[in-house]
Amino acid sequence: MSTKTEKIDRLAELTAQTETSSGSSLWVEAFRRLRASKMAVIGACIIAAFVVIAVIGPWIAPHSPIAQTWRGDVLPNQNVFVGPRGGNWLGLDHLGRDEFSRMLEGARQTLLVGVVSTALGFAVGAAVGVAAGAASTLGGRAGRRFDSVVMRFIDMMLAIPSLLLAVSVAAVLGQSLTTVMIAVGVVQIPIFARLLRGSMLAQGGSEYVLASRALGVRKRRIVLGHIVPNSLSPVIVQATLSLATAIIEAAALSYLGLGNPDASVPEWGVMLAQAQSYFDAAPSLAVYPAVAIIITALGFTLLGEAMREALDPKLRG
Amino acid sequence: MSLLELDGVKVHFPVKKGVLFDRTVGHVYAVDGVSLSVEAGQTYGLVGESGCGKTTLGRAILRLVDITEGDVVLDGTNLAELPGEEMRGMRRRLQMVFQDPLGSLDPRQNIESILSEGMAAHGIGADREERRTRIREILAKVGLPTGALSRYPHEFSGGQRQRIGIARALVLEPDVIICDEPVSALDVSIQAQVINLLEELQEQMGLTYVVIAHDLAVVRHISDVIGVMYLGGLVEEGPSDTLYAEPLHPYTKALMSAVPIPDPAVEDTRERILLTGDLPSPSKPPTGCRFHTRCPWKQDTLCATERPELKDAGNGHKVACHYAAEIAAGTVRQTVPGAVRPPEAETAPAEVPAPAKPADDGRTADPGGRAGRAAEPGKTAEPGGTAGTGGTGGKSAESAESAETAQGGGTAGTGTTPEAGGTPEAGDAVQADEAADADEATDAGEAPKTGEAPKTGEAAETVEAAEAAESAVTKD
Ligand SMILES: Nc1ncnc2c1ncn2[C@@H]1O[C@H](COP(=O)(O)OP(=O)(O)OP(=O)(O)O)[C@@H](O)[C@H]1O
Ligand code: SF4
Ligand SMILES: [Mg+2]
């Protein structure tokens, strides 16, 4: 809803525009709306903080995240733990390592897993989705057949519970960080594929695609120049939301012991898993990574939802 | 040879069902055998109710939907048989303006990109600068500021968007532009502007239009020839003035009678034809005449069994109704009581059919209704249409000597009243002759048809008709 003054301003803007002034594309307008949304701003701030910590964290960490410097101070067997104190702001973990430094280093690992796995899921899923969508919209009978075969396969993947799928992939590939990334990425593939294809089919039936056909534009250009760009916004929203689930799922896989075999490398999911054994004596060791995971996931979710609203064509002014 | 000719064009959409394997369970007969021709530099208006297949026909001309059967010939090239790439090339000569101005523009493309896309696709203009010059010219022609180039569709008003749509078609310099309800999405105040723009452009550039609309006023204003569609087929076609002055098909009559007349005095006495029932589904079109389920003049023979062809009724006015001539002459009465409302019935609520009367009442002498209709033959007896009606009468007299012949005779009679006698056509005498012969069969013929003895009113009319026919003969 725009107020009267805004309307007048816009009118003034339109009439004042000279030949050199450029109009604002939908992306620009969406960005403007995004900036005005509280949800988006909060989400973006959380994400920005997370990214900054992930990038520079290891350098600003006061101690080594791996060295068991204060090994003697904690006696996990006798429930002796060290809480926050002068040099160790978040205390020590069960092996006498600085928890704060481990959290900072863990942010990097977590971001890496989230981004790489989502990128993988996005890339493969979008490729499959574009192929199926393109085949279906312009490939005639054979194209539709190709599309339906591919989509049945995608549906099968979707039907398998995501964690089960990830565990199976991880089990096949063996235990490593790459495994976690691939496993989490594979889970995202069908989601992106289905979403992009559905969105392409919807765009394919739109009037402006018909108009391009009437103009005599080549089919390939219609698909790549019109249908795909207009189908992207729900997929981009999904990617943002997926980062949140990817982080949680990666944590879950690490928790299940399918992550990096080198358990000394801190990762929030691994840290959570390790803290579980001492939950009664030192609940804070579990709370730190859990809260970090939740806040980060929340950040991506907030931004994703705000983007969904900003990109909604129905709100187009 | 006309610029654009359609011959028996059919577009049937298969209705598919099935989870794994698509099974065709039927068809939507969206366009079912349309033949028409559009002359260069003219405007062909296509009207009809929602869902009658106007849009589908327009798209079939550009082959945006698959043509099931029939030919679309543009300037000697049959588009229906053209392979894909050649068809793409032909689209340069055949353009379309869409109903939804915003929906038909890609929201992520700026105006320059929208307007140059067609040129790029057809290799028009050597470089960007050349294209830009051309786009500027077109923008000026359609009345958009050149500053529009870098702006996006959502930044324009509805009327401006439609101008962009028109400009997009124009940059390719097409021969024919199909306008699918070009103004129905616009404010009434803007509609006139856009219609006028279309007319100006036609004058300047010698364009040929096919204008689709359900607003009769719009079509009348802009068209040279009008085609009326009902359930996938043309039911009437004629020069726009003739068609408006004297609609021959019952469906056209009903359409026209629904248009309010701006003059309140005339509006009050306007006769209204209310169509009963819904538009049948195009997936199960009625047998025979597609309109017979709703036609107020439906007869017991032919209507439900034989599909009437679009036949010339004279002066290029074509109609697809078995009884058009008889209805025009008033020798065939409405069979659905209350469907044709004399003006005084207007006070009754529009939805409720005329006060419940026994079904027969409509047929027997009903002073009010009769008076209303009695005026009709008089109306028809205008020079233009008259000769035409006479022609049909004569032709049907040739073909058969049954009930229809008798009525044909009647029509011919009315047709060749003295006023028309002033413009005799070759063969008129012969036709009148036959008509007179046929008249003798009148009483015998009329009886089996309606299953009743001829009514006094009709008998009187027939006598008049016979006299008129005789006078025509003597005159010649
Ligand atoms: N792609 C399609 N598949 C199946 N049926 C279709 C398709 N396109 C149109 N139809 C059907 O064909 C019939 C004619 O549709 P069309 O859009 O041509 O009508 P129209 O005269 O343009 O109506 P309107 O005035 O509402 O625009 C309708 O019953 C419609 O449902
Ligand atoms: S053919 Fe019969 S049903 Fe069809 S329009 Fe004529 S009178 Fe009516
Ligand atoms: Mg339509």
UniProtKB/TrEMBL annotation, chain A:
It is a multi-pass membrane protein. The keyword Hydrolase does not apply. It holds the Pfam family OppC_N. Keywords: Cell membrane, Membrane, Transmembrane, Transmembrane helix, Transport. It comes from the Bacteria. Residues 107-304 form the ABC transmembrane type-1 domain. The keyword Cell membrane applies. Its main location: membrane. It is found in: Cell membrane. PROSITE patterns: ABC_TM1. The chain crosses the membrane at residues 40-61, 111-132, 153-173, 179-196, 286-306. Belongs to the binding-protein-dependent transport system permease family. This is ABC transporter permease.
TrEMBL record, chain B:
Residues 341-476 are annotated as: Disordered. Residues 345-354, 365-384, 395-406, 414-433, 459-476 have a biased composition (Low complexity). Keywords: ATP-binding, Nucleotide-binding, Transport. Coiled coil: none annotated. It comes from the Bacteria. Residues 434-443 have a biased composition (Acidic residues). The keyword Cell membrane does not apply. The keyword Transport applies. PROSITE patterns: ABC_TRANSPORTER_1, ABC_TRANSPORTER_2. One of its GO terms (molecular function) is ATP binding. Signal peptide: none annotated. Residues 15-256 form the ABC transporter domain. This is ATP-binding cassette domain-containing protein.
